[in-house]
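Input for the complex:
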Amino acid sequence: MAITGTTQLLGVIGDPVTHSLSPVMHNAALAELGADYLYVAFPVAAAGLAAAIAGFAAIGVQGFNITIPHKQAILPLLAEVTAEAQAVGAVNTVWRTAAGWVGTNTDVAGFIAPLKAKPTWTGRTALVLGNGGAARAVVAGCAQLGFAAVQVVGRNPNKLATFAASWRASPLGGPLTTHGWDALPTLLPMADLIVNTTPIGMHHAAEQTPLAAADLALVPATAVIYDLIYTPRPTKLLDLATRRGLATLDGLEMLVQQGAAALEIWLQQPVPVATMRQALTDWLASA
Ligand code: NAP
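Predicted:
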């Protein structure tokens, strides 16, 4: 589709944002749909956030994604925040209405999507490694899936206490307990789903893993190991889990599905998820 005077703008704001894969998958979907939109990455420093979104309103940007470090800072700048985003405490998708910008969190839907293909999770136990931003979407997603227990492991007792307290008023935080990493030998044998939300094992330190083979030996044979990291594929964690005979999921599908959910909100029509997945897979294979 040619960029003309009628082309509408979508995008992602963050700092840094040049590494974002969102332009690749969104523009592939927009091209397939023949939609008159362009999706661009906008570097926005923390100090410039309010000015940036006021500017977006002034120039008619239709919607945008938000990544680090703005996912929480943007909340007070929005006219409305969905209940889900309020529960998570972070917004990753914003769209324009007559009343102003409305924000939601599609990371939860993205996280859940590949788990829905599995048998029911009701009554099961999830073990979440890390207590940062992505862990918040994971906790909300596990609550939606009906897990009876969500055990979050963190390395910083103060941050862990703040994390636990932030869920106390939320119905989504019901099954949550928090633990130090030293509790793993007790927690691993109980886990039906283990989610790595730490950056341990990302491409710049691909030889690292949050769980060693000896840890995975403690996990039930039916457990699913879900690493939110999508480069490398597989991570060392998922490689070790596969060797141990466990089912695995990586973070690519979450990335695709959170993007598809956002694009559906902006375009108000079904979007070509397979095209988005293929665009990302091709891009990562060529990188
Ligand atoms: P974040 O907010 O910085 O949180 C990272 C968490 O990991 C924090 O709890 C941090 O602990 C913990 N951590 C970091 N290094 C650690 C270490 N060496 N040992 C123990 N704990 C460690 O980051 P995020 O936004 O949640 O992202 C985390 C990961 O998820 C990244 O790899 C990101 O790429 C991935 N992610 C994937 C998707 C997707 O769509 N697939 C979406 C979002 C995020 P402290 O709190 O103590 O610092």
